[in-house]
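Sample intake sheet
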Amino acid sequence: MKRNYSQAFHLMAKPIGPICNLNCSYCFYLEKEKLYPHVNNWVMSDNVLESYIKQYIETQEIDIVTFAWQGGEPTLLGIDFFKKAIELQKKYCSGKRIENTFQTNGILLNDAWGELFFENDFLIGLSIDGPKELHDKYRVFKGGQPSFEKVMRGLQYLQKHSVEFNTLTCVQKENSEKPLDVYKFLKEAGSRFMQFIPIVERAAVNQLDEELNPVSPEFEKGAIVSDWSVEPLQYGKFLTAIFDEWVKYDVGKYFVQIFDVSLEQWYEGSSSLCLFRETCGEALAIEHNGDIYSCDHYVYPKYMLGNILKKPLFEIVNAAKQYQFGESKKESLPDYCVQCKVRFACNGGCPKHRFSQTPDGNRGLNYLCKGYKYFFQHIDVYMKFMSEELKHERAPANVMNWILNKGNTAAHQNKISRNELCYCGSGKKYKNCCG
């Protein structure tokens, strides 16, 4: 059986594979060098680049086609590589509008990059984990030197050239304890669009040299969660603390991805983000040599779908193997999750993180489940209000006045009693658990 992706799908490009000028402790992609042990030149070749651009545009039956450039670190390819990509996009656009997004650590940004991004309307994603002491904990150079100052210099170049950007913050063990420090820092740095990505990786207890580590999602030989991974409940508390600040003062001024997609769920019952959709499989990844994988979090041999030089892209993304990959997200959801009150909001989260056990002993519970429940339960009253505003064609930002005038009372009444069973499913009273 096949799913028809002909209308639109997302293909994240890794034109320099996993090669990077940083050595972030929590990076899951650096290890992908092991997949190509005999490769010396990681630069996407001209024929792969042209085939990728041509086929990607042709296969999309929509008017706007978005290219996503990531890595590794894509600035290592140099400006001329992306000038060539832009010319190829113009050559094959066929009247469609082309957009480019570009994820970078910011280290190599300068005036020339700023000019290229501005002149070609690139949207830049800048990776930064918060203030210096939090950012430098894990985001370091290969010799262990801190990277914060050079990242901030890169940010200044983006601002100097009026380049549109958002920030991607990896939420890990350290910065998860200081949510408001992170949020206020990002606002002061000039970020109006923010993503908070939970860092969760597992390492094999007894790793073999040829095995990839962090391990694949279905690895069952024995693995433990890394020391720098965010703890489940703490992730929920991190999001909640920022949400409480945002919903009182910043709605319509600053935009946080998980808040936006949550409002989609409450308002429409569906999400534009694969993380919280019932099924997935429409966000694939292409490696430097043209190999295509089911997802950039599933770049393992088992999930390699084919090579763009050997098989048409349309056939690759419509293959039964990819269809089943996407459907399994829904099919493998444990009964415990199916019956959950906030299932509509998270749908079990990313399958990559479904390695925990449910209270009744079944495998497949998302590691972050307790955090998601904490967060989604907390925001329910506010999301209901904002979705009602949207239904009546009013601004969701009205929630700020509602809170100021009467929302505090309503929110208080919505909270769970301290003596009720905790909503995380532990079987304990709320006051002895998440409370």
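Comment: The mean pLDDT is 92. The first helix runs from residue 46 to 59.
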